[in-house]
Design brief:
Two copies of one chain form a homodimer. Chain A is of the alpha/beta class. The first copy, chain A, has a domain of 256 residues: Rossmann fold, CATH 3.40.50. Helices cover 42% and strands 16% of the residues of chain A. In chain A, a hairpin with an 8-residue loop joins strand 12 and strand 13. In chain A, helix 11 crosses helix 13. The longest helix of chain A is centred in the C-terminal third of the chain and has 20 residues. The model of chain A has no long low-confidence stretch (mean pLDDT 95). Chains A and B meet through helix 6, helix 8, helix 16 and helix 18 of A and helix 6, helix 8, helix 15 and helix 17 of B.
Chain lengths: 451, 451
Amino acid sequence: MATKYFLSEDRMPTSWYNLNSDFPAPLPPPLHPGTLQPAGPDDLAPLFPMALIMQEMTPERYIEIPEEVQDIYKLWRPTPLFRAPHWEKALDTPAKIFFKYEGVSPAGSHKPNTSVPQAYYNKQEGITKLTTETGAGQWGSALSMACQMFGMELLVYMVKISYQQKPYRRSMIHTWGAEVIPSPSDTTNAGRAFLANDPDSTGSLGMAISEAVEVAATNEDTHYSLGSVLNHVMHHQTVIGQEAMEQCADAGVYPDIVIGCAGGGSNFAGISFPFIGAKIREGKETRIIAVEPAACPSLTKGIYAYDFGDVGMLTPLLKMHTLGHDFVPAGIHAGGLRYHGMAPMVSHALQLGLIEAEAYTQNACFKAAVQFARTEGIIPAPESSHALASVVNAAEQCKQSGEAKTILFNLSGHGHFDMAAYDNYLSGNLQDYAYPAEKVAEAQARMPQVG
Amino acid sequence: MATKYFLSEDRMPTSWYNLNSDFPAPLPPPLHPGTLQPAGPDDLAPLFPMALIMQEMTPERYIEIPEEVQDIYKLWRPTPLFRAPHWEKALDTPAKIFFKYEGVSPAGSHKPNTSVPQAYYNKQEGITKLTTETGAGQWGSALSMACQMFGMELLVYMVKISYQQKPYRRSMIHTWGAEVIPSPSDTTNAGRAFLANDPDSTGSLGMAISEAVEVAATNEDTHYSLGSVLNHVMHHQTVIGQEAMEQCADAGVYPDIVIGCAGGGSNFAGISFPFIGAKIREGKETRIIAVEPAACPSLTKGIYAYDFGDVGMLTPLLKMHTLGHDFVPAGIHAGGLRYHGMAPMVSHALQLGLIEAEAYTQNACFKAAVQFARTEGIIPAPESSHALASVVNAAEQCKQSGEAKTILFNLSGHGHFDMAAYDNYLSGNLQDYAYPAEKVAEAQARMPQVG
């Protein structure tokens, strides 16, 4: 069975890694949505604590992890690294497959790696309440856990269709003491506008962001928290890759290929950014692959442009791969990957040729996930299954070429909340969606006109 | 936050501990259901492999864990031991609270500790197919994972009400490749008899056992597997307590009180038997508490007698605390604790005064579980929440007496499959059931007449 590489707590990273310090060209800055000029710290202050804004902009390579955050990390970190010999055998590949497993956190995913520091820094600056949005609920549950630990209130706008169809992560958010409102709602101007336009709207992540941002922007004691996309979120997640690097060394390997699924980009950044840094600084020849759903392919089919993070056009403009801020993705089971944009740092890495991107349809992903569950035991989250589909592809290439490459992927969460999706797959009822090509031109036409 | 005590793999137990070797009086043997004479190995051979039958009867203190089983254990073992300082603070108690966390296994509970060796020994003896029963699905999923790992078929009889109302563990069983039939079914004589008696029967664990046992008894290549109650299952689970003992030593403590929830008795045995052994051999003064639901209180309200393990009266008779083999417990959310009997070894330990038993209603249990989730992060399974209710009680006693006792409990699984139960609790809709006192006399009257 799988071979496990634990890391003792005294080898846990004490700093987050900032890939911005190593990029060969600077990351395009966010723009103020009104002036279209680069947004400064003051522009972001209504939404975020200054400590996180500084992390967003700092050129420093390492950001110290506060001791209080490290203490909470130790509830589940360091997470294990595994080799997957039985899956290798089932794939009949000479490749060595390793995976980092983030499903051991109390929320069952990598999301608490950033929810905990975000709650911490807000608490430090006297903020008593946060707002956020959530799709299927991974982020909302992770942030509710963190807020509860720091004695803060949390209001979660949950995409209405998920609120209705996926009640269990909603229950989890309640168990951790936060309030949940289905979005679009009549509690915000943005929500009322969406409802006026379509009273039966089942919502989207982009709409829920507008609502959460509005509440934070209009309440003194309230800030907003985002579970992906922004630079500081990418930094926080690098504990994954830093640990994996140590564990790979313990296992006597260095990955030839590093793979992560990408929705907003945070778990992909987590596993890959430290390896991209090594690629830039030390000239390592590592292939780094971001994997997205064919139904929501911002990296592989989107345009690279300044766009809003939300439907209501309230957020700063970010330079990123986007399908258009009003794009509503098909209802695939990987709810965490249904976002129109991509983290600017991930987009920038793609533009610079430091990473590659692939897209897979969901049946291919679930096929890989079921084979993995049947050989190595762990049932992957539908989001993570996209990374597995890419591993299958890379393993097949190794089989063709006879090369025994070392593949490392991030298993970002377990699928215990997503068994209905497995049911659909196993009963042959899972539909594959392709992104309609004509949408690209439409999105291009509606893109905000910058500079 | 919680302080974690990891154990390196090289300190993982290499033997299971057998409390039968240390009991001051011998365990009453199982009886053949026809002859009412002690059942010998041959009587059990149609159902179990000889290796497990020998473990059932051996007087040896330690049973070596096969290397193949240790290899699979390493997928999630050793499991972490935590101290829970934030819960201690919320409870305002001088007690030191430690817990062993079994929810990190791929199935999310302690059950794979025995499903893996059971599949292994059956495979070793040429068996290609197993049958079993499951209530809410913890055991069925754990065994399906193990069978899949050894390339064996599995047929699971799932209590019909759970099959209908709790589809997600059923999906998990399917994902791991096993077949699931709602029980009672028309696929067995026992099932047809139950249905003839009550066509609308929603089933019970006792009925599902009858069906699974019948299939195994009447098919040469098929054996039966039980997830609790039997001696070998108790032995297998002692990896929990053995690891905890090492980890407590690392933490510089020895528990004054050891607490586990008890349905059939396996996770309770797992955490407590090594400590009971130390109590007997070394005179340690440890309180050991088994905690059961007030709705299904075999240890606190049942009678200690020879009874059947199933409704169909097909199993050997076991000397145990029982509510009567035809008792159908109220529909509480802790599905894994809804069994009429108790493991003979646990019952024997209670008779000998080595352990105590307590019962709690489910609102008290969920109250403790929510407080725990909000302070230490992890959301407990409803079964495990019974242990937490007892910890709250013990911590309160420490507060009254001012004693800083060390409490160790087993957090046998996470509650990610049971969020609907948390919803019910949080919305105030959870009903408490008491076991009707008159049932005891009724059960006594229907008990099989032995000796």
